[in-house]
Amino acid sequence: MSEHSIPFPPRRRRPIPPSLSRRGLLRAAFGAAALAPLAACSVPGARVHVPTGKAEIAAAVSDFWTGRDRSGKLDFANYTQYIDVDPADQGKHPTLDAFTRENGIEVSYNELIDDSASWFGKIQPEFASGQGIGYDLMVVGGDSYLTKYIQLGCLAPLDHSRLPHFAQHGGAAFKNSSFDPGNVYTIPWQSGMTGIGYDPAQVGRKITSWQDLLDPKLKGRVGMWNDAVQMGNVALLAIGVDPETSTVADWRKAAAWLRKQRDAGMVRSYSTATYQSSLQRGDLAASLVYSGDVFQANQSGSALEFVIPEEGGLLWTDNLCIPSTAAHPVDALTYMDYVYRPEVAAKISETVQFVCPVPAAQQVVARDAAAATGKRRTVLNALSTSPLVFPTEADEARLRHLRVLDQEEEKQWNALFEPIYQA
Fold first, then answer.
1. What would the pLDDT profile of 378-422 be if each residue is shown by its tens digit?
2. Residue 203: pLDDT above 90?
3. What is the CATH number of the domain that holds 118?
4. What is the spatial distance between Cα 59 and Cα 57, in angstroms, rounded to a whole number?
5. I need a surface site. Which of 67, 249, 288, 347 has the fewest CB within 10 A?
């Protein structure tokens, strides 16, 4: 699967430093996800009972939502540049404006989440003191922090009877994840893939497997990451193990695979911050990458390719969720369902250009392309056919989710994988 022929121009949005982009923040979030201790959202230091089973979950949903109505207000916290914008006025978000016109709900939209760790640190004390955090809706990555929020009772269970568009239009690959089985607390906002990015001119052949990152011909020209979460998960794929069902014994084998790669001198650098620029300069021939980084590199003139290896790649997801302290939860739930309408999801994707969790939005983007002219038509045509935004069924079949780790497992995991890139 390649994106080197997709002619996307630079996005017309307020520029931010690469280190603060959502992709850059993803690297920081995954790398830091195992570092913070658990602290309860209701009682410091304690976990709450998490409902399990249909009857218990249904009771929790009823308890939370009974008697609640719309208030006409929504406070939404998100990452920077992670929603559609008006090309003529980047302070406007057309889908939010349309939501307000249609539903009478005024939205206070705030781009103030930097990364999972700092956001958790900011709002957890407010949860623990029993105060509201000031937001009704927030975006949380599918990492260890989301597990913490769930375990500590910080999130409201979702009333799926009020999410008909999610039920109808949400892609199967984005439902029932291991970090939130049954989407009890979350639905996807945007998504992306982790695989291999490479320069065909340097490699001289197609890369198809994680084992290609052991090819002696690439010695000293492979990029890996200083990120225990992603490194461990892709190494599990490399040895033929599904990360979600992996055991500690599997982790040891995966760590051995990574040590073999390191000791053979294959890896030029372990860095989440520099691999994209190193690929573009030609310092690396191949690297572990986020699909979106290859996408961005090719916008600026590179000719890189992205592949989901035959053993599988990773599908990561950023998620919409409602804090249990939300003052306007019905308004938040109304918005959550709204973004699963294909025409709305398409507008967001036309700006954000991440993997869209609404497959039917692809037809809308194609329709918008047919109605457009000039460069915009070229851009939208390419977007509507890009497997990096709308993965094919074959691609989705090779994608796996990150291993969900509890607090004790995090310690074991980090002890195995961190020394590989810290040595």
1. 889 988 998 989 999 999 999 999 998 888 998 999 999 999 999
2. yes
3. 3.40.190.10
4. 5
5. 67
Are 254 and 278 members of one domain?
yes
Residue 127 sits in the same domain as residue 212: no
Query: Is residue 142 over pLDDT 90?
Result: no
Those residues whose C-beta lies under 8 Å from the C-beta of residue 50, and which sit 6 or more positions away, are 150, 151, 153
Instruction: Tell me the C-alpha distance between 56 and 169, whole Å.
Output: 26
The distance of Cα 189 from the centroid of its chain, to the nearest Å, equals 8
Per-residue pLDDT tens digits for 111-124: 999 888 889 999 98
Residues 249 and 171 grouped into a single domain: no
CA 119 → CA 114, 152, 192, 325, distances in Å?
A: 7, 15, 21, 16
Q: What is the pTM of this model?
A: 0.82
89 & 134 share domain = yes
Number of domains into which the chain is organized: 2
Residue 89 β-bridge partners: 86
**d(C-alpha 172, C-alpha 357), whole Å:** 9
Residue 241 domain boundaries = 194-315+402-422
User: Which residue in this structure is represented by tokens 């999972």?
Assistant: 116
The Cα–Cα gap between 335 and 332 comes to 5
Confidence band (pLDDT; 50, 70, 90) for 2? very low
Q: What is the DSSP letter of 230?
A: H
User: Mean pLDDT across the chain, nearest whole number?
Assistant: 88
Residue 44 lies in a domain: yes
Judgement on whether residues 271 and 322 belong to the same structural domain of the protein: no
Smallest Cα–Cα separation from 357: which of 174, 221, 234, 183?
A: 174
Q: Would residue 395 count as lying in a domain?
A: no
Amino acid at 67: G
Higher local confidence (pLDDT), 348 or 354: 348
